[in-house]
TrEMBL record:
UniProt entry tagged with the keyword Lipid biosynthesis: no
Gene3D superfamilies attached to this UniProt entry: Endonuclease Chain A, Polyphosphate kinase middle domain, Polyphosphate kinase N-terminal domain
Ranges of residues in domain PLD phosphodiesterase: 617-647
Functional note: Catalyzes the reversible transfer of the terminal phosphate of ATP to form a long-chain polyphosphate (polyP).
The name this protein goes by in its record: Polyphosphate kinase
PANTHER family: POLYPHOSPHATE KINASE
Gene name in the database record: ppk
Enzyme class, broadest EC rank: transferase
Amino acid sequence: MEDSPLGDATIAADLLDDYDAEPVFIDDSELPGDRFLDRELSWLAFNLRVLELAEDDTLPLLERANFLAIFASNLDEFFMVRVAGLKRRIATGIAVPTNIGRAPLDVLADISARAHELQERHAHAFQGLKPALDEAGIHIEHWTDLDERDRVALDEVFSGQIFPVLMPLAVDPAHPFPYISGLSLNLSIRVRNPKTGKEEFARLKVPTNLPRFVKLPDHGSGVLRFIPLEDLISNHLEELFPGMEVLEHHEFRVTRNEDVEVEEDDAENLINALEKELQRRRFGPPIRLEITDDMDDVTLGLLMSELQITEQEAYRLPAPLDLSGLFEVTRIDKPALKYPRHVPTTSVNLLPTEPNERPDVFASIARGDILLHHPYESFATSVQAFIEQAAADPQVLAIKQTLYRTSGDSPIVEALIDAAEAGKAVLALVEIKARFDEQANIGWARKLEKAGVHVVYGLVGLKTHSKLALVIRQEGGRLRHYSHIGTGNYNPKTSRIYEDLGLLTADDIVGKDLTRLFNELSGYAIEKKFKRLLVAPRYLRKGLLKQIAREAENAHAGRSSGIRIKVNSMVDEAVIDGLYRASQAGVPVDIWVRGICSLTPGVEGLSENIRVRSILGRYLEHSRIFRFENDGDPQVFIGSADMMHRNLDRRVEALIRLTRPEHLDELQQLFDLAMSDGTSAWWLGSDGEWRRHDRDDAGEPLVDLQNELMRQIGARKRGAGR
C-alpha cells in the first residue's frame, strides 16, 4: 500500500475492523434508541471529506490528484475489511454493533448504495481534474488521442517491454476460469475464431510490476504525457491472439475479503499460524466487482457467475479503474504543483544549551518533560535520536520498546540491533498482527531475534498497540528511567506526514509504570495499578468514564467543567453515552475526530452541549488527546487509544497524564484553534451530516490549522515557555 496523508494501510486500518467485540453500555434506560450514527456510513462520510479535498480547486493540483488516489486506496481497504467483516457477522448470525434496531442486510444495502454514489462522484472528479492537469503540462492520454508518430513509438514499447510479460488465460473446457487476485486490474476479452465462428473468453492481468502510466515521448515540447498501461495493452490485443477476431475487451477489478483471523489459543506457534492465514488471505471470497461502464452483458454475466457476485456488488464506472494508480502521477517532480516544502524543526527543548555543544537527548530530558508535536517537530532529532543515543551510550544498560508498525528501512530497528550487539539488554515487543503489516513485522521480528534482541509478541488474544519506549541508564551509582510515550508508531517515514504527539520524560514514576507494564507484556505479571498511565484493556475505559462522570458531577454542583477529546474514531457506546449524560448535565464537550463518529451532536435534550469537528489536510491528524477541566485542575492525557471497542477491549493501549502547566496550556490552545469558528473544518450536524466550513461570510478562506501550527512551532525559540 502507498504511504499517504490519509489512506495507506498504516492508517486506513486504524479506522477499520472493529467487529469482534460486543458493545459495552452504561445505563441507557433514559437515552433514545436512535442516538448512534451508523459507523459504516460515518466511515464513508470520512472518505467523502477526502474526496472533497480532491475537488477543491484552491489546493495544489498534484495534491488534489493525491487525494483522489487516497480516496481509492481507502475505499479498497473499507471493502476488504469493514464490508468483509460485516458480511462475516451476517453469515454467522452475530449482531452488528452500533446498528441498533436495524437489520444487518439493510445496513449492507445502505453501504452499497452510498458506495456506488461515492465511486461515481470519484470518477467524475478525476474527469474534472484532467483539464487542469493538461493545462499544467501533465497529459493522461487515451489511445484515440495519439497521432501516428506516438503510436509507432508505443508499438516499440509494447513489443520490447510489455508483450513478453503478458499472460493471456483462455477459459474453455480445458482451461477453467482463472483465479482473479484481489485488487488486480484485468482485461476481459472475447474473441472469435473466423474459421469456425466460435466465440471464446480470455482474461488478461495487467502486470503490477510495470508502471501504471506509460510515458510518451514529448517530441521536444516539454509536456509530460502518459497513457494508462491497460489502454496501451488493449490496443495491441491482436498480437496476443493472432488469427482471432477481438470482439470485445473491457477492464474489471475484484476486491476480496482480506480479513485475517488467527485462533491464537489453539496455535502452537503464533507466527506459523499467522503465516498460514496470510496465505489464505489471498483467496478470500470476492466482495466487490468494478467494471468499465461499456462492458457488455454477456461478459458481465460470466464474471458475476464465476465470481459469485451479486448486482449490488457490481460497480459500473468510466475508465480508468483503480485510481489509486494516481500515486504514480503525484510523484512527478513539479514542486509548484504541490504543497510548499515544510522542514520540521528540532524541539527547542532538545537543542544544546551552549553554542557548538553536541545535542544530548538524555541531558535535555533530565531538565524536564518534553512534549513533542510531529511532524512540525522532527521525529529524527527527537524520538529516533533518543533510541540511537541509547544504543550507543555505554551507560545505558537496557532498552525496551513496542513496535506496531515501522518502515522498511527503519533506523529504530537498526538501533535496537546495534544495542543488542553491543551487549545491552534489549526487549522488543513486535506486534505481528498489525493489519496489512503482518508479513513485514514477521520479517523484522526474525531479524531482531538473530541479533540477540529479546522479541516477544505480547499477550494472547490482544494486540499491543501502545507506543512505548523505556531506557534504563546508570547514572552516579543508580539506575534512572528515560521514557517515551507517544500517539503514533515508531515509523520515521510516516512521521513526516502523520500528526502525532509524544512525551519524553525522566520521571521515575512513569519509568516504574512502564517497567511494570513491560513485565506484564513479556512475562506473567498482572499489574493492578499504574500511577500516571491509563492502560487498556483493564482500566482505560473505566478511567475515562470516571473522568467524564466527574465532569457531570462538577457541572451539577455549579463547578467549572469541560471535556475535550481528539481521536481518530469515536464509536464506543459506553463512552458516547457518558458524553451524552455529561452534555445533559451542562458540560461543554468538544470532540475533534478525523474519521468515524457514531455520536450525534446538537440534539436538544441529549447532546446540545456537544460540538464535533473534523480537520483533514496535508498531514493526517493522528494524535489522541483527552482533556478534563476537573474544576480548574485539568487532567490531560495523550496516547494510542481511539474510542473503539477493539482499542478498549482487545488491545494493550496506554495513555499518559501530562503534568507540566505549559504542556496543558499548549494542548488547550490547540483545541481552541481547532474548534474556532474561524478555522477551516468540517462540522457534524444534529442530522448526522458533515458540512465543510472553509470560508467566512465575505468568502475569504478560514485559517488552515496545520499551516498555522507550522508557523507557530517554527517560530519557537529556546526559553519561550515550553
